[in-house]
Design brief:
It is globular, with a radius of gyration of 14 Å. Strands 1-2 form a two-stranded parallel ribbon. The protein has helices spanning 3-13, 18-22, 36-47, 58-64, and strands at 27-30, 74-77. 0% of the residues are buried. By secondary structure, it is mostly helical. Helix content is 44%, strand content 10%.
């Protein structure tokens, strides 16, 4: 996450009460898809409330050596 994304996320987290913030086990910022057009389209659908869920392949996390997301994870979706 770059500095601008981190600042955006921190501004949002500052709007949450202590109890709400304590319920968020992980947070991050990312974009969907591998190309700009589709990343922007996914962000648009999320903003409109059309796209409300997502998933990834376990193999992708394993290949990138990334931890699996936890239930309740907060993700800022980037365009």
């Amino acid at each position: 996450m770059d500095k601008t994304q981190q600042q955006f996320l921190e501004r949002y987290l500052a709007t949450l009460g202590e109890t709400e913030r304590a319920r968020v086990p992980q947070w991050g910022a990312e974009h969907f898809c591998a190309d700009e057009f589709n990343a922007n389209e996914c962000a648009r659908l999320i903003a409109r409330g059309v796209k409300q869920a997502s998933c990834s392949l376990l193999a992708g996390y394993e290949m990138e050596c990334e931890p699996l997301p936890l239930a309740g994870r907060l993700t800022v979706v980037l365009n």
